[in-house]
Amino acid sequence: MGFDLRYLHSFIVLAEELQFSRAAKRLCITQSALSQQIARLEGQIDVRLFDRTRRTVALSEGGQVLLAHARSIVASVENAVAHARLAQEGKVGRLTVAYVDAAPFNVLSPIVVAYRKRYPDVQLSLVEMSSGEQLEALETGRVDVGLMRPVRQPEWLRTRLVGSEAYVVAMAAGHPLAGCESIDLPQLALEPFIATSAPKARYIRSRFDPVFAKHGIEPRVVQEVNQLASMLSLVGAGLGITLLPASVVRHNTHEVAFRPLTGTMPKAEMALAWHCERENALIRRFVEVAWRAGRTAMREAGAAACAQA
After folding, report:
1. Distance between CA 131 and CA 65 in Å, rounded?
2. Residues ≥6 apart with Cβ < 8 Å to 180
3. 16 and 115 both lie in a single domain
4. CATH number of the structural domain spanning residue 139
5. DSSP class per residue in the chain
6. 78 and 104 belong to one structural domain
7. What phi-psi label fits residue 118: left (phi over 0), alpha (psi between -120 and 50 degrees) or beta?
8. Pair (246, 114) in one structural domain
9. What is the pLDDT of residue 1?
10. pLDDT for residue 75
11. Confidence at residue 234, expressed as pLDDT on a 0 to 100 scale
């Protein structure tokens, strides 16, 4: 059995007013139209809702029972419709966002703060992944948006560049090169390197391998680690040097010295990424807020890193 929700709303108003003229005025319809709606509702549910005389209108026993439920029914439907509209507009829902391990050093916190302030009713789930892992998760739908290094561009991928920052050389504070204000790439030719494993290092290798080759350098990797904190710890212990985004400088707690590279060097790019076939209002709104907050954060992080390096 189904009925027009308007009839239930008209019933509630008439039950409150107990007078057709006042109820019709509140509903902005004629008394005749109101009478027809009530009659149709009574016919649909096969219950007499009002006891009428020429002078009075009163709720019947069945009408009293229906009224006890009708308000919550109408409120529940109206609430559901309102939430459906908010979801369509990208203002409620659930969003899963992946990020690379360098993101917390510059953009992640400002993006999350800005987005939660703008859209507090969206449930945000965050997960750390490498850029390669993010591509797989975006393709399969396990992740809605990625904050990643642009390692490759499948046809289905849509990206928006947040910003870029310089790479710096990280070395133990007591390393001989720490006494230099800046480092020429050939000075690193004989240095032992600490690097991430091949899948995770795909982006930085694509950026620096041609530069190393141009200078006749083949980096000697003595240790592979995938956690940034572990890498800084090993660098601080003097096990080797590494190349890191400049924003890491602000969070140095490992007795590590950072020095800029001279000349024109590759930059570490950070991009927002999503699947074109799954794009919706929720994703579009996140990307817009994240892009603005992330760009500001990267500019500020870059300026602070330059001052510290």
Report:
1. 60
2. 187, 259
3. no
4. 3.40.190.290
5. ----HHHHHHHHHHHHH-SHHHHHHHHTS-HHHHHHHHHHHHHHHT---EEE-SS-EEE-HHHHHHHHHHHHHHHHHHHHHHHHHHHHTTSSEEEEEEE-TTGGGTTHHHHHHHHHHH-TTEEEEEEE--HHHHHHHHHHTS-SEEEE------TTEEEEEEEEEEEEEEEETTSGGGGSSSB-GGGGTT-EEEE--TTTTHHHHHHHHHHHHHTT---EEEEE---HHHHHHHHHTTS-BEEEEGGGGGG--SSEEEEEBPSS--EEEEEEEEEGGG--HHHHHHHHHHHHHHHHHHHHHHHHHHHH-
6. no
7. alpha
8. yes
9. 54
10. 86
11. 94
Q: Quote the tokens at residue 247.
A: 């924003």
Indicate whether 95 belongs to any domain.
no
Mean pLDDT by 10 residues, the chain (309 residues): 79 91 93 92 91 87 90 86 77 92 91 94 94 95 96 94 94 94 95 92 93 94 91 94 90 84 94 96 95 91 56
Query: Can you give the residue range of the structural domain that contains 106?
Result: 100-309
Of 305, 21, 8, 22, which Cα lies nearest the Cα of 167?
Answer: 305
- Contacts of residue 173, defined as CB under 8 A and 6 or more positions apart, other chains included, come to 236, 255, 256, 257
Provide the pLDDT for residue 303: 57
CB atoms within 10 A of CB 146: 26
Q: Residue 52 corresponds to which tokens in the numbers above?
A: 């009428």
Task: State both tokens at 140.
Answer: 């399969």
**Backbone region of residue 216 per phi and psi (left: phi > 0; alpha: psi in -120 to 50; beta: other values):** left
Q: Are 195 and 224 in contact (CB under 8 A)?
A: yes
Phi, psi of 244 (to 5 degrees): -135, 155
Tokens for 280?
A: 């919706």
pLDDT value for 123: 93
* pLDDT at residue 2 in the model: 60
> Rounded distance, CA 119 to CA 90, Å?
9
Task: Quote the tokens at residue 23.
Answer: 């109820």
Specify whether the CB–CB gap between 31 and 24 falls below 8 A. Answer: yes
